[in-house]
Design goal:
With 61 residues, this protein is an all-beta fold. Helix content is 0%, strand content 23%.
C-alpha cells in the first residue's frame, strides 16, 4: 500500500511551448509504469515552483 507523499517515479522530460510533455528525444509522449489508480501529479521545473494537480488523476496503464 502506498503511503501519503510517496514518490513513485521521477523522470526528466521536456515541456514544449504548446504545453505537452515529451521524452528527451523531443517526440515521444510522456509515459510512466505505475499501477492503475488515482494519483496526484506533480511537475517540477528548475526555474519555477513545483505544481501539483488539484485533484487525483486516473491512471490506467
Amino acid at each position: 500500500m502506498l503511503q501519503r507523499r510517496q514518490k513513485l517515479q521521477k523522470r526528466e522530460r521536456f515541456l514544449r511551448t504548446d504545453g505537452t510533455v515529451v521524452d528527451l528525444d523531443g517526440q515521444t509522449p510522456l509515459a510512466f509504469t505505475v499501477n492503475q489508480g488515482l494519483y496526484y501529479v506533480v511537475v517540477q521545473h528548475r526555474n519555477h515552483l513545483p505544481v501539483m494537480s488539484s485533484a487525483k488523476v486516473s491512471v490506467n496503464p
